[in-house]
UniProtKB/TrEMBL annotation:
Chain segments annotated as coiled-coil in the UniProt record: none
Pfam families named among the record's database cross-references: GIY-YIG
Family listed: Belongs to the UPF0213 family.
UniProt-listed PANTHER family: UPF0213 PROTEIN YHBQ (PTHR34477:SF1)
Annotated SMART domains: GIYc
Residue ranges occupied by any GIY-YIG domain in the UniProt entry: 2-78
InterPro entries for this protein: GIY-YIG_endonuc (IPR000305), GIY-YIG_endonuc_sf (IPR035901), UPF0213_domain (IPR050190)
Protein name (record): GIY-YIG nuclease family protein
Amino acid sequence: MKNYYVYILLCSDNTFYTGMTNDLERRLTQHKSGHKKDSYTASRLPVELKWHLLCTNPSEAIKIEKQIKGWSHRKKEALINENWQDLITFSKNYKEYDNRIKPN
């Protein structure tokens, strides 16, 4: 059975990069080396792995990656910190919270 990983990197400019791979170590090495000079992370080095999820179904991993990519910075932070209440809060009434709470 092949494994697939959904992951979130923290970039040097405090943005998040979300990706999916079947070899997390290889992919992290690629990101950290800036091997694709025109990629999102290459100009935001160094990067740090903040979160990952192991999946056994590639379709599931792709679905989760796309879902997370659509999330706000705050919601990704809640996932990384396992702050389930904030994850729920930021899933509801996003515009209300987006206008009241600004990221650090």
